[in-house]
Amino acid sequence: MTGAPEIKVGSFRVRTVTAPLPQPHKTASGTLHAAPLVLLDIGTDAGVVGSAYLFPYAAHFLRPLALLVSELEDLVKGQPLMPRDIWQMFRTKSRLAGWPGLMASAVGGIDMALWDALAKAHELPLAALLGSTPRPVWVYDSLGQMGPEETARDIERSLKDGFRAFKVKSGAPDPRQDVAVARAIKSVAGEDAWVAMDFNQAFTADEAVKRMHLLDHEGLAWIEEPVAWDDVNGHASVRASIATPVQTGENWYGARDMAKMLDAGALDHAMPDAMRIGGVTGWMEVAGLAAAHNIPVSSHLFPDHSAHLLAATPTGLILEWFDIAAGILAERPKIENGMAVPPDLPGAGIVWDEKAIDEHAA
After folding, report:
1. Which GO terms describe its molecular function (predicted)?
2. For residue 3, what pLDDT is reported?
């Protein structure tokens, strides 16, 4: 045989940074002032290098995640560059140690880097390697939790930046503020503007339903994670009690988590996180399940890989834009008239800004 299947995986390069954000991002779960990131490069004996970044969500998990990724190198180095086979090996070896949490995140990042390397070896964009035409994808700007006036100012900026769809964080003590924020967006972007709202697991099912009785008439595209991410019955109860579609999935650690939600009738939209779901391999499992149930799929973070994954997802809908790694990347998708246009590069299009990485090393 010749070609990419004979390529062997080489050494890992693992670095940590604290990437700057343009402004603090407030949610019901807390406020993110900067993004702790693990940067991963995986070499090959063919000279191509696959890249990905991982987000542990809190600074105190940065070094543990980086250490875990580094320790997993021995299981991968010297193996053929076959991401699905390597992913399945990790799943098998983690049956006793456990999969959800840092293990799934580490494997997800490794998987993303391996697919990036494989696409580069074929000199193809990631979407093309997955069998789909690379294309612009519909995108929304993901905004933090703010009052109506501040939200309106952010929407004006967002419109100038090329966005035509928007999501805001909910969870203010007074639910009437959520209504005021939704109306503030439409007062700037237009009554027909696409607007979603994210509860970030802030409420019980009863609390979420009471809040949604005020919001159900605001024409929201979806309400996201109204209750704890793994509260399947709570999601189902909320969905059965409101008119607004329910979105969930950013905290899933595989297709089985989605299957439980589907069995319970607990969601209208799916939102896998490319890292947590298990990388490209885990995402494509969820994409198949979503297609079989006609569930629209959006993304969570990681716009570089996710733009390609949505292009290869039969029910792919919209890309989330919360660009946590922008401060350490030299190439970004362009936002043009409500669409995200990936860079014309092989792989996922990740190119490090080495000077910025040195400045923000953690």
Report:
1. hydro-lyase activity; magnesium ion binding
2. 45
